[in-house]
Amino acid sequence: DGGITQSPKYLFRKEGQNVTLSCEQNLNHDAMYWYRQDPGQGLRLIYYSQIVNDFQKGDIAEGYSVSREKKESFPLTVTSAQKNPTAFYLCASSPYGETSTGQDFYEQYFGPGTRLTVT
Amino acid sequence: AQKITQTQPGMFVQEKEAVTLDCTYDTSDPSYGLFWYKQPSSGEMIFLIYQGSYDQQNATEGRYSLNFQKARKSANLVISASQLGDSAMYFCAMRELWMDSSYKLIFGSGTRLLVRP
Fold first, then answer.
1. Cβ contacts of residue B92 below 8 Å, gap of 6+?
2. How many CB pairs (< 8 A) connect A and B?
């Protein structure tokens, strides 16, 4: 089955430790994304990668880092510099596509998420 | 400025009835796309429906339809014949041009829908 996997589902860390969240996709999508969701809120973009070895900061990149060495993988590291790391983290990927009217489609497919708790 | 606004933090609907979830947006880009996602308690985001700004007809996907009113900048989600499994958070999102050649999704704050038996 094609899809996006994130591991682990729940993660607990002590304050001051770096932690890496895994994201793997076998959909052959070029673009991959990391979002953060806080309780009762929508998603905010952390980082985005359009192709291998290239990525851009999103709206809330401070305290986070990423790598994109393979098309299938886009791990996110939450560093000790992130002041409020406790949140739900969602990874997504998207293909390129067009609708019948010729517009870009860019539907994003999401993984199941990782809930990170830092104490 | 808020680009996607969902004014209903929570809604109730009786099973088998229809419900409309509101979404308004703000953009100056003539080419844009609007999405609705469902997020059950498990946390995964499930794509429901998409509307492109040039699409002449309102999008429909099974029990989901999108009431697209371009002049009013609204893209309301209509769920017909509600089921208990429809209880979830619903997010409206807009595709926005970013970095001149890429796109990102801007999400609203969501509406929590509870379906009553």
1. B4, B6, B21, B23, B25, B34, B35, B36, B75, B77, B107, B108
2. 76
